[in-house]
């Protein structure tokens, strides 16, 4: 992209097309080359444009705003289907919670990125396959494969959303990394919206209670549920139209949490040695242990995604490297524990799923740690870490597909 920008530095139309097609990488590459082309009228204009921060909230085009409002209302109605159609809530939400939000967000990015008809058909087909498959599985609350399929179906739908976000450009590692960054920003914005909504809920219920109107049940079962369903969609729209809203918050969160998580993990590993409870003799402990592992992996990925858009100090890179090393140790403990359980009791759906996930995470961690080591000690670039993460994402997608759609058949729905 850098060479393309230089070659078309005097072509305003071409630069505009490049920018709209891939804003994050364009801004990153332009910032790195601007000192060399400073003085060029068009280059100076783009520098001002890319670094201008608008304090006002942008609501985008009226057409886009209407589509987002309709999507938010649709999400709320889907969330209310159990009450509307008298469907068992536990059955509906356990199997279909991912369909409340992800298909709508997928449609939004498919429209925004102007996906080709063939790619739209692919995303729609993947979503419908998920709906049909998960709702045709036998009803058995004790079925491990059903639980695994329900959990991994959410990740499957998230992957389809990622496909729509990158515009179907499977080999564009920069866009994949941008997708991870957007996910972090959306989580932050959604949390802020939910907190604001909770405050509004408390105030509203309190005010009506003063005049002896008990609206708590009605409000929580209707307004509350629809608001929770709509929150991620509104958050996504706001982060897309106003990246400056969380553009400075997310990196700060990453910088604060990385060293804190590193210290916590080190202390925890030493405490675990002296404790009677460990992943080797406690199944629930192993599940929680793996949950912690996934959370730390998410923090590492989010931090790397945030750092590739600008310069990262050697100290921050070193902290990420140390965190990755400690996470490898954590993953090693979890992996050895699950191998021990399999050697004693054999393969089961849960043990196989956890084993596969831990092996994939271990390989990914080793690759990421190697790149972080180069970036911290051998004058490597933090961008190479992001490319490693982006390149590995399809591997997770393949495993998610296997657990979601193949495990129930292989293990006989048990």
UniProtKB/TrEMBL annotation:
Keywords associated with the record: Membrane, Transmembrane, Transmembrane helix
Transmembrane segments annotated in the record for this chain: 65-85, 92-111, 117-138, 145-166, 186-211, 223-240, 252-273, 285-305, 317-340, 352-373, 393-413
Protein name, entry field: DUF4153 domain-containing protein
Protein species of origin: Mucilaginibacter celer
């Amino acid at each position: 992209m850098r060479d393309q920008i230089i070659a078309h530095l005097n072509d305003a139309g071409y630069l505009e097309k490049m920018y709209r097609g891939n804003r994050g990488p364009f801004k990153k590459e332009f910032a790195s080359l601007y000192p060399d082309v400073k003085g060029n009228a068009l280059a100076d204009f783009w520098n001002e444009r890319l670094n201008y921060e608008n304090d006002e909230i942008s609501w985008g085009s009226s057409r886009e705003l209407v589509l987002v409002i309709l999507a938010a209302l649709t999400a709320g109605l889907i969330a209310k289907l159990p009450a509307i159609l008298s469907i068992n809530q536990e059955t509906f939400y356990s199997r279909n919670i991912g369909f409340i939000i992800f298909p709508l967000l997928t449609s939004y990015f498919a429209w925004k990125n102007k996906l080709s008809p063939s790619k739209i058909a692919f995303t729609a087909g993947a979503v419908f396959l998920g709906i049909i498959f998960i709702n045709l599985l036998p009803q058995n609350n004790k079925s491990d494969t059903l639980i695994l399929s329900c959990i991994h179906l959410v990740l499957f739908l998230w992957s389809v959303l990622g496909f729509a976000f990158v515009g179907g450009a499977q080999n564009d590692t920069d866009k994949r990394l941008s997708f991870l960054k957007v996910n972090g920003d959306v989580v932050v914005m959604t949390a802020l919206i939910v907190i604001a909504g909770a405050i509004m809920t408390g105030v509203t219920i309190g005010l009506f209670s003063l005049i002896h109107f008990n609206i708590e049940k009605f409000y929580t079962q209707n307004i509350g549920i629809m608001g929770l369903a709509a929150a991620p969609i509104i958050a996504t729209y706001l982060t897309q139209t106003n990246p400056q809203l969380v553009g400075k918050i997310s990196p700060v969160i990453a910088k604060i949490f990385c060293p804190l998580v590193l210290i916590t993990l080190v202390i925890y590993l030493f405490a675990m040695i002296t404790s009677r409870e460990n992943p080797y003799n406690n199944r629930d402990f192993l599940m929680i242990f793996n949950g912690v592992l996934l959370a730390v992996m998410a923090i590492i990925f989010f931090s790397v995604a945030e750092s590739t858009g600008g310069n990262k100090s050697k100290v921050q890179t070193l902290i990420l490297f140390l965190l990755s090393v400690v996470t490898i140790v954590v993953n090693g403990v979890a992996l050895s524990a699950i191998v021990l359980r399999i050697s004693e009791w054999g393969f089961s759906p849960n043990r196989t799923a956890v084993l596969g996930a831990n092996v994939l995470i271990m390989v990914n961690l080793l690759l990421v740690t190697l790149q972080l080591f180069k970036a911290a000690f051998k004058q490597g670039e933090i961008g190479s870490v992001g490319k490693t993460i982006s390149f590995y994402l399809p591997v997770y997608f393949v495993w998610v597909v296997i657990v979601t759609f193949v495990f129930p058949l292989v293990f006989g729905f048990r």
